Amino acid sequence: MNRNDHLAMLGIADSDPDAIGQLVELAAEHGDMEELRRLADAGSKDAADQLVELAQERGDVGEMRRLASGGNQDAANILTEMAEEADDSAG
C-alpha cells in the first residue's frame, strides 16, 4: 500500500495540509518512524523534522545517516555534533 492509498483509506486528500499535519503529529506521538519516513519522502518537511528528532532521541545513527545522505541538513548537523562529542570523550 502506498501513501496515497493509506490517505484514501483514512478519507484524507493528499493535498490537505491540515490532514497531513495530523498524520505527522500522530506518527510522531506513536514513534512510527515508518510512517514518518513515508510522509517525509512524499515531501512533508514537518515529518522530516519529526523523524530527525525521533532518531536523535533513540540514538538511531543509521537513520540519521540515511537522512543526512538524503540531504537533510539537520540530520547532518546532529551527526557532526555527535562525532565531535565522541571525539571529546575519547580524548
Please report which band the strand proportion falls in: under 5%, 5-15%, 15-25%, 25-35%, 35-45% or over 45%: under 5%
- The residue fraction in helices comes out at over 70%
Count of alpha and pi helical runs? 6
User: What is the CA–CA distance across the termini?
Assistant: 49 Å
Envelope shape:
elongated
Question: By helix and strand content, what is the structural category?
Answer: mainly alpha
Helices and strands, in order, run as HHHHHH
Would you mind describing this structure in some detail?
There is one protein chain. The protein has 91 residues and is mainly α. 77% of the residues lie in helices and 0% in strands. The chain contains 6 helices and no strands. The protein has helices spanning 3-9, 17-29, 33-41, 45-58, 61-69, 73-90. The longest helix has 18 residues, at 73-90.
Question: Which key terms come to mind for this protein?
Answer:
91 residues; mainly alpha; single chain
Write a compact overview of the structure shown.
By secondary structure, the protein is mainly α.
What secondary-structure arrangement, pairings included, does this model have?
Layout: H1 3-9, H2 17-29, H3 33-41, H4 45-58, H5 61-69, H6 73-90
Helix pairs in contact: 2-3, 2-4, 3-4, 4-5, 5-6
